[in-house]
Amino acid sequence: MGNQQQSGVPAFPTGRVDAILDTDTYNEIDDQFALAYLLRSADRVRVRGICAAPFYNSNSASPEDGMERSYEEILHLLSLAGREELVADVYRGSRGYLVDEQTPQPSEAAEAIGRMARGYSAACPLYVVAIGAITNVASALLYYPEIREKIVVVWLGGHGLHMPDTREFNMEQDIAAARVVFSCGVPLVQLPCAGVVDVFRLSRPELTAWLLGKDALCTYLAGNTIRTAESYAAGKPWSRVIWDVTAVGFLMNRDGRLMHGRAEAVRLPTYDGHYSQQAEDRQYLYIDVIHRDALMEDLLRSLTGEETV
Questions:
Q1: Residues pairing with 287 in the sheet
Q2: Rounded CA gap, 304 and 271, in Å?
Q3: If 0-12 CB within 10 Å is exposed, 13-18 middle and 19+ buried, where does residue 61 land?
């Protein structure tokens, strides 16, 4: 059961929890690691749904195309992981971003989040882990405002509070959605990218030693990362940040070994790339330290099923 502190600031889970993952899976190589980590941690997390999030960059022709490519990549990973029973729990997300802070984007994902959340409570919430633009989650909260008492939103987005700006990919794609989530009163966990999560890196020697050849899923994760990195850094030392793993890692942080967080006053992201102080006296859980080696060990053990990595 995952319990919240009386202050409204989410606590780290203390037992097996139910979760939905909202992911722009085709955007980069790290979403695949995060989804695989979730799929292979069934002793700690029950996957209730997987939602495809929109994204737009060099890997997509539009936000809608990014969402569709992510949907297909989710199905591919379920096949590699031997978890085809979850195919019925995969949902297409929105075709675009919020046009303002009052109007939700319709999607299967937003409807599924709202429908499933009704069966939970503040004492036993549904964890909604978002590792892309937070459009689907914001839309669910706009459609079904009553669910904010029944879920905990865990979002990898924005940069650290000590950084000069918050111009980060997940946040910048849909600042309106981020403002909805930060302002609506839902229990919130933020994992900032630059300045906090960017320590969580993986190198070619580690991929080769720990994952390559273990099984179809592990080999895909390693090969995809190596191929992507070698496309721009062939013959040079390199490492890749696998940002999104940390958001799933939040659910696994039973004894505080994997990360540390602190209560912070809620700040709204602004449209000019900064944070403003929120007038309301509310707080959220801000992850400020990632224990890289401990989290990497937990990830690799979960992926390979081997006690020694």
A1: 261
A2: 42
A3: exposed
Domain residue spans of the chain: 17-200+242-303
Predicted pLDDT of residue 307: 76
* pLDDT recorded at residue 170: 97
Residue-wise pLDDT for 88-141, tens only, equals 999 999 999 999 999 999 999 999 999 999 999 999 999 999 999 999 999 999
Model pTM above 0.85: yes
Q: What does the block give as tokens for 235?
A: 């013959």
Task: List all residues 6 or more positions away from 232 whose beta carbon is below 8 Å from its beta carbon.
Answer: none
**Protein fold of 17-200+242-303:** Inosine-uridine Nucleoside N-ribohydrolase; Chain A (3.90.245)
pLDDT at 135: 98
151 and 125 Cβ atoms separated by less than 8 Å: yes
- Which tokens sit at 134? 């937070």
pLDDT at res. 281: 81
Place of tokens 């191929």: 227
- Regions of the chain short of the pLDDT cut 70: 1-7, 278-280, 308-309
Whether residue 3 contacts residue 12, with contact meaning beta carbons closer than 8 Å, is answered with no
What amino acid is encoded at 208 in this protein?
T
pLDDT of amino acid 8: 81
In the prediction, which pLDDT does 306 show?
A: 87
